Amino acid sequence: MKLALKVTEVEQLSPLVKRFRFEDPKGASLPVFSGGAHITVDMPEEDAIRRNSYSLISDPYDGTGYEIAVRREDRGRGGSLYMHTKVAEGDDITVSLPSNLFQLDLRAKKHVLIGGGIGITPFLSQLKQLEMEQKPFELHYAARSREEAAGLKLLQEAAHIHVHISEEGARMDLGAILDGQPMGTHVYTCGPDGLITAVADQTARLGWPKTAVHSEAFTAPPPGEPFEVVIASTGQTVTVKADQSLLEALEAAKVEIDSSCRGGACGRCHTKVTACDGRILHNDHWLSEGERAAQQDIMPCMSRFKGTRLELDL
Amino acid sequence: MTMQFNDETFRGDYSYFNSPAAVKRFPFPFDQDSYMYSVNIEQHPGGPKGSPFEFAFDVDEHYVAEMKDREITLAGDPMRCQSLPHMELAGWDLLELIMVSKARDYPELFKLTRDGNDWHWVNKPLGIEKRFTFLDPTTLPCGPMEYITRQAQGDFALLHEREGNLWLDAGMITSQADWSLDFDVGMNFFEWHAPVPKARKMGVFDKALKFLLAVGQDQSYRRLNWTMTVNPRLDTSPENYHKWGPEKRTVTPENVGKKQFLRVELQTFWRLPRSNALAFPIRCYLANLEDIASQPKWGRRLHRVLRDIDPDLAEYKGFAVNQKYIVDYLSQFDDGAETSPGIFPD
């Protein structure tokens, strides 16, 4: 199911980040959601629809509208540029219902949220949920400079909300944040891979259970060189353009395929490879190292191919 | 539409009965003349008008009596309803889902008026009228899951998602086919399904879990499961096995048609919005062999299914001890004619 909404607000939060608000054109209430949920936005262009997923940053229990924040990626395949250059107040926009791959574990005695750069977004809805649920938490937001820190406009000043601006010499010290947290604390990280790895390393050193360490790294699919795939059941050849994901190309060619997050995290589009003469460029967070090396599986929402023949079990 | 509610019991004198209309709409679970496990999942709600699939939460002639039976079971054993502390939000989600659905689908029976978080709920069949504050547990006499499931037919399990698995962390379970919430609470999907024969090896659970984890807020689904029960008893729990287990031995060739019930579970799956938990309602329908055989297609088919079933499944479903009586009885309705596809009667 899709929601046909109107763009009701566009706000420049920082030189690279815009906030968008979507509402039902007739003012109907939208389904509420859980902190950390995302929606997928349709971006129709000429012959195909590009789709990106964005974390919801608005109050999860407020059905009057959905809000997202989008960082412009000039070297991306065009999704964020579309949002920045083609979407204006009053436009129609089609989005998916919310779905959540980064939910809070409400068993936690305390929640520590760590966001790097645009990775602050899922925490904006989570902290509203935590406030409503009256759960103890602290949030750490790291950014390079105050100018780039789009999240600043969306965060309240509060004792448990910490901003770390590295340009001002206030680099985030993960050891200091994580050491001494009470038993039963859960930590959630969203941001660059380096930050997620650093939190994982630090919590491992401190002996945290793995089940108390959560992260979300899904990003938009990267662009790349065009390539072709063959559909095993029909013999059809599908061309994937430079600024298109394999999933988008399959959808444009009306090949039936399941999908959800479009960021390599949920596993729904997991597809078997029946022939591979070349190298799969894995960009997902779903397949294991072993599966990547074997080249018998691919996540079409994120991954690409370089070589002479890739045949998919579709 | 006015609905008549049966004056009937599910224990003691077992006065439970199905009206002719209830028999016709019974969710017969077999779409062919044989049975093996399958992930037989369809979208829900949706189905022929008047069928138990038409609405999100079916309300039928047994509603009031079933709620009375639940009250008796809970009074004897409060542990049939449990909710781990982190599941309260899921309980509110479930309360909202059920109240909104029932008020929409049965406006002559239920009414919900909402002004922000100030809610007013009217349940005419049970004579309940309640004003409360949504998400404020101090305004209800008990937790939100218990409150609403004392007013909704069927068992309810609430599943918490974490670590790529589902955890049975809350439930109202008083009409179960021989499993215990008190034993299973806190278990994950594979743990609570461990007693089911063959299925794990067949890969059924891996597929089912993958499917359930992918259920979205905008999609809900159903499947039918079944077993056999002697006497129309909802509470066939392990805790009370001493009460109903021996009744299996009271079946004779003379009374099998009246005493032996086909027990069908209409299981549905819902992604809850605020908690991101999954709700798993398990609605139980009972019809004895006489009722089933009143529909010629069902009589023929049930005979073939139970005659040819895998012996492990007959044992697991608890009717191996009476299988001969059952099959002999049903054989009189099987003239060897072909049966039409699908579950609905001809």
Task: State the main characteristics.
heterodimer; A: 314 residues; alpha/beta; Elongation Factor Tu (Ef-tu), domain 3; Rossmann fold; Ubiquitin-like (UB roll); 3 domains; five-stranded parallel beta sheet; five-stranded mixed beta sheet; 6 helices; 16 strands; B: 346 residues; alpha+beta; seven-stranded antiparallel beta sheet; three-stranded antiparallel beta sheet; 13 helices; 29% helix; 21% strand; globular; 2Fe-2S_ferredoxin-like_sf (chain A); Ferredoxin-NADP reductase (chain A)
Describe the structure.
The complex is a heterodimer of chains A (314) and B (346). With 314 residues, chain A is an alpha/beta fold. Chain A has six helices and 16 strands. Chain A has a five-stranded parallel beta sheet with strand order 9-8-7-10-11, sandwiched between helices. In chain A, strands 13-12-16-14-15 form a five-stranded mixed beta sheet. Chain A is globular. The two termini of chain A are 23 Å apart. The model of chain A has no long low-confidence stretch (mean pLDDT 93). With 346 residues, chain B is α+β, with helices and mostly antiparallel strands. Chain B has one domain (22-331). Chain B is built from 13 helices and ten strands. Chain B has helices at 20-24, 63-76, 88-105, 144-149, 181-184, 189-192, 204-213, 241-244, 256-259, 289-293, 296-308, 311-316, 323-331; strands spanning 42-43, 81-83, 110-115, 118-123, 128-133, 155-162, 165-172, 221-230, 260-271, 278-288. In chain B, α11 (296-308) packs antiparallel against α13 (323-331). The mean pLDDT of chain B is 94. Chain A binds chain B through residues 1, 31-34, 37, 60-61, 97-100, 103, 105-107, 129, 132-133, 211, 258, 260, 266-268, and chain B through 84-86, 89, 135, 161-163, 210, 214, 216-219, 273-276.
